C-alpha cells in the first residue's frame, strides 16, 4: 500500500484541506493518506479552536486514513523544528511521499533554494545576524539574507516571503538533512491566502479567516460554503456542548494569572523567552485587562506576533528551555485515529516501523509524551465555561478514533 503524508493543523478543517487531500492522493497515486497533526497548541503559538480529537474526526471523515499527533515540542516550535519533527514521523511510519500546499506550486524552485542556501551557508548565517543587529525580526532578517544570495542568479528560486513556501522549504530541508526515503511533492495553494478574510463568493477560505469569522460574527452556519458538512456539524456540536472555542482571549485569565504568579527570573526559564522580554511580559500582564491590550504592549519590530504567542504558550504550559533542549526528535508514533483502511496499513507495517506505535498512553512511559498529556490538560482547563467543566486526563480516556 502506497502511503503519502501530509502535515496539518486543521484549525478547523475546511474545503482547502479537502482539496489538499484529494490532490495529494491523485498526484502521488496514494492508497493511504497519513496526516501528522498538531495537538491542542499550534505552531503560531495559540490554542486550537477545537481539541485534537474533534479535528481528528473531521479529517478522517473527509478522506484522511490515519492521523498521528505531532508532539507539543515540535507542534509549537519555529518552522525548522516543526518541519523536522513532522518529517521524522512521516518517515518513521513508512510514507513514500509527503505533499504540501505552497504558493509556488512546483517542487524544483524549493530544491534550487535549498542548494543555494547550503552552498552559501556561512555568508547566509552572517548576513542574518547583521540584519538582526539592525533590529529586524528573525523572519525578516532571514528573507533579507536570502534575497542577497539569490538576487544575481537566473535560476528560479522559491519566494520565501510567502508563509506556505517558508514551511514547504523547511519540509524539504528536513527531508534532505535526514537523507529520508520520503519524497517531497507540492501542490498549488488555491483561492485564499494564509491570512485572508472570508470572501462569501468563494468556496475556499483560509483557516485564519474562518476563525476570525467565528469570533467576530459568532455564526457557524454562515460558514457552510467553506467546509465539508461533517466539519460544520462538528463545530456546531462543539458550540452546543462546550460553549466556547479555544483562543488566547478565552485563556487570558489563566495566562495572566500564570505570568503574574511567576517571578521575572522564572519567566526567563521558559522556552523562547529571550533578551529581557520577560520584564515587559510581566509588567504588561499586571496592567492589561485583555489579551489584545497585552499584545499591543509587548509587540515590537523585533518580535513577531507569532514569536510572542509561542513564548506565551510555553509560559502557560510551563515548558522550559531545559525541556526544549532535552527533546531533539520524536520517540514514538501516537495514533489519534484511523479508518479501517488505515488500520489495515498499520497492521501490515507495524512490525517494521522505526518508532514504537502508541495507541494507549498508559501503555508507555515517555517524557515527550508526558509533555503532550500535560499540555492537553491545560488546554481543557482553559476551556472551562458555565456550560461545561473540562476534567483533566482526556488523553487517558480517549482511545484512537476508528471510522
From TrEMBL:
InterPro entries: Rossmann-like_a/b/a_fold (IPR014729), tRNA(Met)_cyd_acetate_ligase (IPR008513). Gene3D superfamilies: HUPs. PANTHER family: TRNA(MET) CYTIDINE ACETATE LIGASE. The lineage of its organism: Bacteria, Bacillati, Bacillota, Bacilli, Bacillales. Belongs to the TmcAL family. GO terms for cellular component: cytoplasm. It comes from the Bacteria. GO terms for biological process: tRNA modification. It comes from Paenisporosarcina antarctica. ATP binds at residues 7-20, 101, 164, 189. Its EC number is 6.3.4.-. The keyword Transferase applies. Keywords: ATP-binding, Cytoplasm, Ligase, Nucleotide-binding, RNA-binding, Transferase, tRNA processing, tRNA-binding. It catalyses: cytidine(34) in elongator tRNA(Met) + acetate + ATP = N(4)-acetylcytidine(34) in elongator tRNA(Met) + AMP + diphosphate. GO terms for molecular function: ATP binding; ligase activity, forming carbon-nitrogen bonds; transferase activity; tRNA binding. It is found in: Cytoplasm. It is an enzyme of class 6 (ligase). This is tRNA(Met) cytidine acetate ligase. Catalyzes the formation of N(4)-acetylcytidine (ac(4)C) at the wobble position of elongator tRNA(Met), using acetate and ATP as substrates. First activates an acetate ion to form acetyladenylate (Ac-AMP) and then transfers the acetyl group to tRNA to form ac(4)C34. Pfam families: HIGH_NTase1.
